[in-house]
Design goal:
Shape: elongated
Number of domains: 2
Largest sheet: 6 strands, mixed, barrel
Radius of gyration: 33 Å
Helix content: 55-70%
Structural class: alpha+beta
Number of strands: 12
Membrane topology: Multi-pass membrane protein
Strand order of the largest sheet: 3-4-9-6-8-7
GO biological process, one term: lipoprotein localization to outer membrane
Strand content: 15-25%
InterPro entries: ABC3_permease_C, Lipoprotein-release_system, MacB_PCD
GO cellular component, one term: plasma membrane protein complex
Family: Belongs to the ABC-4 integral membrane protein family. LolC/E subfamily.
């Protein structure tokens, strides 16, 4: 063992009577551990939050959609859907049909009029519907079969609360299939004839945590059932999920070019741009937090080493008088900083991991869902975060430990022994 390592270990961790260095080192280790754990947990929360919101938004509209101008309906063609699916980046997809309605729930038990409100019903194929409901269904059944001749509907939790809906509830859907262009005398009759009236049954209640424009507005139904009742053979567009979201823009442009005019495509990031800008703002605050915590950790190690140098001034003078070169004395304190940092980093990693697993298991920290779109603090265990934070803290500790290490090496034997 090199003398520097042996002396550094004795200085840092060897307990001796009437001395305080061991306690000082303990405080330094705890400080580095808390800083390391705070950095890791910050990254875990920010990544978990962004990932949770992104998954929910993609569940509503997939990664990309292809429509025609003015959101007009068009005839479904298998060849067009196959073009979307044949792209090497596409994982899955299908056609969809969206239609706006006024939904009126059934009358209450005492005969009062049932509440009504605007909704958008989105019809998807069975695979896409089960993929969405498999994640977010809270009440009811995945089976949307029309056993009683009504159209099966899945309502968001907020919409169900506002309109007093529950699985098995009957509702009335009223929509407009066309625009009246009749004369003054026949305008009302044409308007009435253009109404789409349909009875639906609530098959289940889903809950994504997203509020305005999502759980309080969107309803899910079977695509074929909607086509049979409202727009035979017609759809609003095609949607698909991709393997690599970071390549999404190029994928959309490529597929839209293959489908040709009048098709155009857009990504989930473009459709919900405001929400993703908000998430990006959350990520932009992360460097400020990291820098702040890192500065605290750096000053912690500097102050610790300076205190140790004061405490060990006589020992440093004796080592210098015995012939230990200034460079090797400097390495003693650099090694001490390294050992202290390693102990603090390992403890910080363990603390962050335990706190993360504990929160993921028991969900002790709750959030107002209407403000944050999630009920609990989302956390992600990413090994790269643990490695990156550990290396960053270790590197900065060693860089800034050079200052007090040079101070120790500059002490003169006579001055140090006489203090």
């Amino acid at each position: 063992m090199k003398p520097e390592f042996y002396i550094a270990g004795r200085f840092a961790f060897k307990r001796r009577s009437a001395t305080r260095p061991t306690f000082i080192i303990l405080i330094a280790v705890i400080g580095i551990a808390v800083g390391t754990a705070a950095l890791i947990l910050t990254l875990s929360v920010v990544k978990g939050f962004a990932s949770s919101i992104e998954v929910k938004l993609i569940s509503f509209s997939s990664h990309m959609q292809f429509r025609q101008p003015d959101s007009r309906l068009f005839m479904e063609r298998r060849s067009e859907m196959q073009q979307v699916l044949n792209d090497p980046e596409t994982v899955s997809g299908g056609p969809f049909l969206e239609k706006n309605f006024i939904l009126k729930s059934s009358a209450g038990a005492r005969g009062e009029r049932g509440p009504a409100g605007p909704v958008m019903v989105k019809g998807t194929d069975e695979e896409e519907r089960r993929l969405f409901l498999g994640k977010f269904l809270r009440e009811g059944s995945l089976n949307a079969a029309q056993e009683d001749g009504t159209i099966g509907l899945y309502a968001g939790s907020t919409l169900a609360e506002n309109l007093r809906l529950k699985p098995g509830s009957r509702v009335m859907l009223a929509g407009v299939s066309g625009v009246s262009s009749g004369t003054e005398g026949g305008g009302m009759l044409e308007l009435l004839s253009s109404l789409d009236l349909e009875v639906g049954t609530i098959r289940g209640i889903y809950d994504t945590g997203l509020q305005e424009g999502f759980d309080d507005f969107m309803m899910i139904a079977d695509l074929r059932a909607m086509q049979d009742r409202f727009s035979p053979g017609m759809i609003s567009g095609y949607e698909a999920r991709v393997r690599h979201p970071e390549l999404l823009s190029g994928t959309v442009e490529r597929i839209a070019g293959e489908l040709r005019y009048p098709f155009y495509g857009y990504t989930v990031f473009e459709r919900y741009q405001n929400l993703f800008e908000w998430l990006r703002l959350q990520k932009n605050l992360m460097p400020l937090l990291i820098v702040t915590i890192t500065i605290v950790a750096v000053f912690n190690i500097i102050s610790t080493l300076l205190v140790l140098i004061i405490e060990k001034t006589r020992e440093v003078g004796m080592l210098s008088a015995l012939g230990l070169e200034p460079g090797r004395i400097s390495r003693v304190f650099m090694t001490q900083a390294f050992l202290t940092a390693i102990a603090g980093i390992l403890l910080g990693n363990l603390l962050a991991l335990l706190l993360t697993l504990f929160e993921m298991r028991f969900h002790l920290i709750t959030l107002p869902e209407k403000s944050y779109f999630i009920k609990y603090v989302p956390l992600i265990i990413d090994p790269t975060d643990y490695l990156a934070v550990s290396l960053a803290v270790l590197s900065l500790t060693l860089v800034f430990a050079f200052i007090p290490a040079r101070i120790a090496a500059a002490l003169k034997p006579g001055m140090a022994l006489g203090s």
